[in-house]
Amino acid sequence: MLNFSCRFCLVAIALGAFSISSFAASKVQPVASPTLYASLAHAAPQLNPQALKSALNAMQCAVGSGARQARHLAVIDYSQPSTERRLWIFDLRTKKLVLRDLVAHGQKSGENFATQFSNRLGSYQSSLGLFRTQESYEGSHGYSLRMDGLEPGFNDRARDRDIVIHAADYVNPLWSQRQGRIGRSQGCPAVRPQVARQVIDKLKDGQFMFSWYPDQRWLKTSPYLNCQPRQVASILSANGG
């Protein structure tokens, strides 16, 4: 028969093990489903694997921290030139590619390649990170889509900056023949008029959009890429989930 001190030790060990397991279970792991990643990578072999993994990990962290599941995920790979179709839209239920097309970057982000990004009003630069799409509306550019940036310091002023998805005639491959790039926006991820309605209808009302570039400061401090559940939960709460 165990004496009192031994029984106390066993209880302490059990409680310690329970605490450790509880902490491990509560910690959100920023690792995307291998099956989902494999399916989307197969559907979009030209998409940078690091960009896709980052997008899925950021989304996984958001959902694991309380965000609503989305039907669609858009990924913009700003490491590719504007002359390439660097916008991908995936259906997360069917795990298929819905659309791949051109997308503009901001006037002051760069020429054919975007290399500078900002969250500042009047910067005319694109922003990086995870966005949540919101309502569609008719504006000066016609049918457009608002979105909220979810990353403090990197894209959370998107609504104040009027960063929206809209159609633009300058998103045209013919521009590249004259200027070596397509036209540029004031920071919006503008798309071709021919696909604008399809893009907006797929992405409106609470989908995820993720803009990627190997910016070291963002990669090291993003609360989504370096999944920080408490901070992410606070951000999502402030943005209505």
TrEMBL record:
<feature type="signal peptide">
    <location>
        <begin position="1"/>
        <end position="24"/>
    </location>
</feature>
<dbReference type="Pfam" id="PF13645">
    <property type="entry name" value="YkuD_2"/>
</dbReference>
<dbReference type="InterPro" id="IPR032676">
    <property type="entry name" value="YkuD_2"/>
</dbReference>
<protein>
    <recommendedName>
        <fullName>Murein L,D-transpeptidase catalytic domain family protein</fullName>
    </recommendedName>
</protein>
<keyword id="KW-0732">Signal</keyword>
